[in-house]
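Here we describe the complex-level prediction in full. Unlike the single-chain runs in Section 2.1, the two entities below were treated as one system.
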Amino acid sequence: MAFINKSDLNKFKKKAGDLFNKTIDQHVNLAVTGLSRSGKTAFISSFVNQLITEGGNSQLDFFNPVHQRRFIAAKRVSQKHLHIGRFEYEKSVAAFEKSPPTWPEPTHGISELRLAIRYQPQDSLLKYATDSATLFVDITDYPGEWLLDLPLLNQTYEQWSKQTLALLEQAPRFEHAKQFIEKVNQIDPLVSADENMLASLAQEYTELLMYFRHQLGLSVIQPGRFILPGELVDAPILQFIPFTNFNCIDGNSYQNAGDGTFIGMLRARFIEYKERVVKKFYKEHFLHFDRQIVLADCLTPLNNGAECFDDLQLAINLIMESFSYGQSSLFSRIFSPKIDKLLFAATKADHVTPEQHSNMVSLLNQLAYQTKHKLNYDQIEMKTLAISSVKATLSGKGKHQGQEIPVIQGRQLHDNKLITLFPGAVPKRLPTKEYWDKNGFNYINFSPIESIEAHQSLPHLRMDQVLQFLLGDKLK
Amino acid sequence: MAFINKSDLNKFKKKAGDLFNKTIDQHVNLAVTGLSRSGKTAFISSFVNQLITEGGNSQLDFFNPVHQRRFIAAKRVSQKHLHIGRFEYEKSVAAFEKSPPTWPEPTHGISELRLAIRYQPQDSLLKYATDSATLFVDITDYPGEWLLDLPLLNQTYEQWSKQTLALLEQAPRFEHAKQFIEKVNQIDPLVSADENMLASLAQEYTELLMYFRHQLGLSVIQPGRFILPGELVDAPILQFIPFTNFNCIDGNSYQNAGDGTFIGMLRARFIEYKERVVKKFYKEHFLHFDRQIVLADCLTPLNNGAECFDDLQLAINLIMESFSYGQSSLFSRIFSPKIDKLLFAATKADHVTPEQHSNMVSLLNQLAYQTKHKLNYDQIEMKTLAISSVKATLSGKGKHQGQEIPVIQGRQLHDNKLITLFPGAVPKRLPTKEYWDKNGFNYINFSPIESIEAHQSLPHLRMDQVLQFLLGDKLK
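The structure predicted for the assembly as a whole is:
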């Protein structure tokens, strides 16, 4: 029998405990979202690229495992769910390798990618136990529009219809939605439903949503699945609309209307949508996420004017409901999520001059202010950053009327011409009406600035801070 | 207290029991399948059209409820599953209403439609109890290719690979598959897998399958989901191939190969495909079907020659495995289906002259002979019919070298020209080699012959017998 004294035994137990804690902390599920065209594909491509090519020309000073030289290597390995699309990393990176480089094709729906990161742990015990440890990172990419649907779960069909009508009756939507509202108002909601008419009305409503999103640049698109139907194309579950004439029915008739009536069918499909589409996403995916990145492009809505910007603010509030799961929130009454860190990133930071970045962050903070407040309270760690996943400009100094001013240089997206300019200031706070009246914004869209070689790192702004916030504590 | 004697009471009990049996017998799930381009869309459109327009110009003499004047009316009502695509009946019928009429667009994947049929029951008791009864018919349309996958459930990855290789090494596939096989043979199956290479090999294999189906007219396409991926597009579950070089690995290395190796990854994905794709379809859909229609176009494979025809025969045998659920069958070991009637219909009967129809049925019976035998044994009622869902020709008599011969008249599909001809005989039995050497087939494809008015019935051949077989006993 070996000798061991009590104090040694306790030490050993503690170390064994540490080791155990360390060994189970080997996996993290990262979710990346953002409204369409917010730069999800570029973000994920750069995130993966920085890790995979680390040791080449990568600039990751603020990512501790690299700074402390404990980072060994990262590689893509087989993803967790074989029935989910593969994030097409190689195709995206190929776009940046072209000459001239282009932005990668955007993703639709949901896709996955798994990384294995080998590193040397700080912890001396583990260091002796093994030369390296591995952290597996599962990245899930999904449309931000899906999060816009969460609030539906707390609404009846009547409430949702009325709220949607209120939105449709305001500028800039009203002008385009007017005809649709008039058409719906002519329907007797208590007669037997005509499914073909409903299908064509739903088609019309979907086209309105597409127009709002892609032509007007609006952000609040409900139901979110209508514009990205995937396998549900042509299914009745996506063939409903908000009823715009609730004033014409009394509560009793509404309650008693059968599923075969126009209004009853709309209600039944709305309920089914909540169950089969909204809840399903939260149960099958969202509840398994550990950390979430929400990307927001604030510059385009600023370009588009006050109404679009307000709409972005509303959309962000709706999206943030998925993360504000205090005890009394809608969310925690329905689900028990486990997200402990939320990164809220303003993309395209390279599209303005560097001294504007603090304004971008401050604006983003304001946009998410209420939620951030709640999140702090609930002890979810939230961070806001102004980033550029893949830098499209160079910054420098120029002369304007004898004065030195900050400028950026890049190739304009629409004609590929190299231009140098000061693209304008970013407001530090949510712009007021007076501000909008006096100022306009005209940020330019740029192409990626120069192609990279194979296995080279993509130029970026603050991706190292992103990595540190999301992975730093898991790589200690 | 009322007087009632024992005999009256017994009579009453019996009648109440009959009534009960009748009232619960108010619903039937019909499934319609067939390999792509076998005429599923036209079939379902006509099936629904005959019922909905009954009482107009419809010809349904062999459908008892109509013949006995007990059929009241039928209409489309809301389908059962809101998340499944709606069968686009109206769009299909619109194609037949155009001038000149066209064939409707084919469906992809799965779609649904529900009919409510009102009728007067034969049973006197129910006749007194109520003026009419309603039978709900749920029709599910799904690709026949999905049934080709059932046999996979009984195979290991190695068995499936070897069997597929045997198929690929025969004419007419070999010539096109040669390069693919050579490429796969150069891979060391035990090295670590490259997922991108696998994705591109799977893409190549899928293109081969597409070519086999659409250019060569072959029927045995495995895995069936590869050519109709739906929501699984880009998912690793569809990124595997048959490994063509099993001779190069010994059994031990194969068994011990990890999931990260080339061969291990193929095997893992094959297993996941069986679970997540094949079994899922059977569980979620197939097990709920009461009656099945399998459509087969025998004329096109006859046109295409011996190899295509043999391939059709093999495909039909594979498809029929889903219905031959005797105690020892693969199927009944995995599932407990409840299909009690199977209609096996040769489509395009109007593309040959009427006196050839008995040969068509006889040929079809031979194609499915083994299965039919088994089915009878298992007491599933099976029927074979030569039908035309929507008639494209008129039949009559013509003169040829002084003799009266049967002819058909129709508009050729490729140039819309009206032609009159005797399209040739249909072999009564599976053609032998000698037969193929001596004879060729050249059946013509026709457009629908003339457009119908709205609410008019589509011209057909034997759709009334189809209705009688599938619904007659439910409408007594």
